[in-house]
Amino acid sequence: MSTDTSAVVHAHEAHSEESNWEGGESPFKVSYGKLMMWYFLLSDAFTFAGFLIAYGTLRFSSPSWPVPDFVFRTAPFDNLGMGHSTHLPLIFVTFMSFLLIVSSVTMVRAVQEGHRENKNGVVFWMLLTVIGGAGFLGCQAWEWSNLIGAEHMSVTVNPFGTHTEAGTYTAGDGHEISSGDTFQAGDSYLIHQKNGDFDQLPYTTASGESKVQSFGPKAFGALFFFITGFHGFHVFSGVLFLIIIMLNAASGLYVERKNGYEMVEKIGLYWHFVDLVWVFVFLVFYLL
Questions:
Q1: Which DSSP state fits 201?
Q2: Residues 67 and 99 in one domain
Q3: Is 17 within the bounds of a domain?
Q4: Who is most buried in 34, 98, 171, 278, counting CB within 10 A?
Q5: Is the pLDDT of residue 181 over 80?
Q6: What is the pLDDT of residue 165?
Q7: Which DSSP state fits 157?
Q8: 196 and 179 in one domain?
Q9: Per-residue pLDDT, 216
């Protein structure tokens, strides 16, 4: 290639690269819609990070905090009904997480079928994703109703704060109650009403003396319902968008575009983000 020809080629390449940044084409070789989705997910990631960091700060600065194995050990299929099974802690939330993770896998398959321009495949795998997301929301609704109705937890009341492990409890200042002290059995073993406020737990000492123990930090209930509710809102929104896009795909709306079902790929990015955030929520609330 001659020097003049080479110079022309390089000049053309340089002009093409510059024109990409002039608004004619995307400089990142992705569509405007996907780029904006990435921007949205990045900003949302900072929001969730702020919430979880705030929770962690309060969690590790408090002398007393609920133990997940004790708080989240009930399940609708528990043989003890309203009782508290100690054999399979966290089994129900593990099932919830499994549903969400599987729905992420089915979303991957929907995107793959979209790249192949396979309308029926896209609709089938998106339907499975919708079922998985709806199942997760149903499980979360049961968990909330159980914590509020059966365990009497709210944004201002935390009946689990003094529990550390089986048979041993800690007071609000971090000091342990005698190993011989146990909570009274019965339907109201979590709640003791005093002056109209549910703010203390009854227990008896080894000598038979009746006492009450203050609840744990109120921040636990408030942060749990707020953060899991905020994530649940994202899942609910995602399910609605999945249904809309699935119906559009089934109607053949995206067939004429011949762009690999890009809309399915964009909602897939959102759905994978929701699944990834749940991994961190699960770690912070249910494992730490």
A1: E
A2: yes
A3: no
A4: 278
A5: no
A6: 42
A7: -
A8: yes
A9: 59
Whether 118 contacts 148, CB under 8 Å: no
| Segments forming the whole domain that contains residue 179 | 168-214
Whether the predicted model's global pTM rises above the 0.70 cut: yes
Beta strands in 57-209 (DSSP E): 163-165, 168-169, 182-183, 192-194, 197-204
Structure tokens at 243: 């249904």
Measured CA angle at 203 (ends 197, 205), to 5 deg: 145
Task: Report if residue 11 sits inside a domain.
Answer: no
Are residues 263 and 199 part of one domain? no
CA distance 281 to 277: 6
- Sign of CA pseudo-dihedral 25, 28, 31, 36: negative
195 and 76 within one domain: no
pLDDT at 105 over 50: yes
Task: Tell which wins on pLDDT, 157 or 140.
Answer: 140
Statement to judge: residues 107 and 228 lie in one domain: yes
Q: Are residues 193 and 74 in the same domain?
A: no
Q: pLDDT value at position 5?
A: 53
DSSP, collapsed to helix, strand or coil, labels residue 272 as helix
The single-letter code of the amino acid at 188 is: S
Tokens of 231: 């994530």
Virtual torsion, Cα 268, 270, 274, 279, nearest 10 deg: 70
**Contact criterion met (CB below 8 Å) for 197 and 131:** no
Letter for the amino acid at 136?
F
